[in-house]
Amino acid sequence: MKIALTGSSSYLATVLLPVLQNDPEIQKIIGIDLKAPSTDFSKLEWRKRDVRDAEIWKDFQGCDVLIHLAFIVMPLRKTSEALDINIEGSKNVFSASAKARVKKIIYTSSCAAYGAWKDNPEIITEDQALRGMPEFYYSWSKAKVEEFLNEFEKKHPEIIITRLRPCIFLGPNINNLMRTTVRQALFFRYLDREVKAQYLWDEDMAHAIYLALKKDYPGAFNLAGDGTLSFPEMAKMMNVFAIPLFFKLAYYGIWLLWNLRLLNMLSPGWVKATEYPIIISSEKAKRVMGWKPKYDTKTAFAKFVEAINQEAERKRRKRKQG
Description:
alpha/beta, about 15% strand, two-stranded parallel sheet, Rossmann fold
């Protein structure tokens, strides 16, 4: 089996690649990214390529499966650039895979595609309409890409397409907004609403991709660790005080700091995504794919906090020794 992997230098790829490397049925992995991989794998062949490049189909030639991870997650100052990479880049990748006669596509979408709306059902299943949030480029991008896939599937029924819609996944080395939040011990809770969240451990996310690779599971699958956590519960696990704020005050405060360029990772869109909960059911993935996450939401978050605390302790010891 030969695999094409976009976003081959992303954090998720670093978790997935060892799994692919150890599978004897996989002969070669074509890794596509603008950044070179940080770890060498004998089966991995890196190709420096932008996902919007019209020639990317050449990298897919002879590949059986495309795993599309490449996506801008952290905010860019130029939202139009993030949208272009995420939406047009994904369209280009899927069209190129059809041109190269790839048999299967595994796309890592997101539960953010459902949108954080007031009228969301208490538990969201895969048949819920995708309603991307215009104020939140990540949610909007994920929904728009899936909208394109709906038409793409009709034109290319010969391609098996699996869409994975995970909640936020965490890992010991992931460098994202959640890591910054925990590291800075800064957390808040809303006075005018209770918002809960779900988390997924990185290995459980990679395992879902691997299951979709090994067998054919067309359709969409939500992925989340069991259970939920409220903002105050997370603050307690971090051993920090949750700053009480009304949602609008938090949103416009972050909007001001972002536009004054005093914040780089926390954009107003990410705050908007916490206005209402997006709680998903993973029962379909468990039933159809046989996916069994090792860690629930609380354990995943606890492991994440522990990893960051251990990192901080190592740095303190190093400073003392220096």
